[in-house]
Design a protein that fits this description.
- The chain has 231 residues and is mainly alpha-helical.
- It has a single domain, classed as Growth Hormone, Chain: A (Up-down Bundle), CATH 1.20.1250.
- The chain contains eight helices and no strands.
- Helix 3 runs parallel beside helix 5.
- The longest helix has 29 residues.
Length: 231
């Protein structure tokens, strides 16, 4: 896939993670395991009803990944056109993230209180969308390095830099790592910029701001093709 394509995915993942943290009672829709850490902190400092979101969101994510895998293996994978499959999955992801944006905008316009159940309804579509993006990397390694969690990319970056300093070549044993040595730092930066944008726009506009990363995913879908190929 093109560099711009993967960068957009990383930007959206950071945006969605920070946006859901700021606007949906500190849940993380992209870095789903981060909810365990935040939940533990909540329990230690004083558990509230809305903190149950961090528990409920986990099975939603897990079941979504299972459903995506079953549908992919049973139907989608029968047709040998990875770029088309990826585009289709990203369009679905965009619709899901936009669903959270539309629901969030409606809540803001009506002035409703964001209680546990309403928060769960708003958070569910974007969580499904990020489950899809996480699964996309595993089902199609051609997509490139993980864009939803940067820890692995940062680790690989410093492994590469350390070996480079002592004159050794570095090659990841993970099959989804990029061949472009300059891509990892760009992805890390894109994720960080996405976090800033997600937090800032959600603080300013509420959860309706999720409509913006949904548009970016549609842009990524338009770029979903193997690197070096024309549209």
């Amino acid at each position: 896939m093109t560099r711009t394509f993967v960068i957009l995915l990383a930007l959206v993942a950071g945006w969605v993670d920070a946006g859901s943290f700021v606007g949906l009672h500190h849940i993380m829709a992209a870095h789903i395991t981060g909810n365990f850490v935040v939940l533990a902190a909540d329990i230690a400092t004083g558990f509230q009803t809305t903190d149950l979101l961090k528990i409920f969101i986990l099975p939603i994510f897990f079941i979504a990944v299972m459903a995506i895998t079953l549908v992919h293996d049973r139907y989608v994978a029968l047709y040998d056109d990875p770029a088309r499959h990826i585009r289709g999955m990203l369009v679905i992801e965009a619709a899901l993230i936009a669903g959270t944006g539309a629901l969030g905008l409606s809540v803001s316009l009506n002035g409703w209180a964001l209680d546990f159940w309403l928060s769960l309804v708003i958070a569910t579509p974007v969580t499904l969308g990020m489950a899809l993006q996480n699964a996309l990397h595993r089902l199609y390694p051609i997509v490139g390095p993980a864009t939803t969690v940067m820890t692995g990319n940062i680790t690989q970056f410093f492994i590469d830099r350390t070996r480079g300093m002592i004159g050794r070549a570095s090659r990841s044993l993970i099959n989804d790592m990029p061949k472009d040595e300059f891509l990892l730092p760009v992805l890390i930066a894109a994720f960080g910029i996405g976090c800033v944008l997600g937090a800032a726009t959600t603080m300013r506009f509420g959860n309706g701001a999720f409509l913006l990363p949904a548009a970016l995913i549609l842009a990524a879908a338009a770029l979903a093709r193997p690197a070096g190929k024309a549209a």
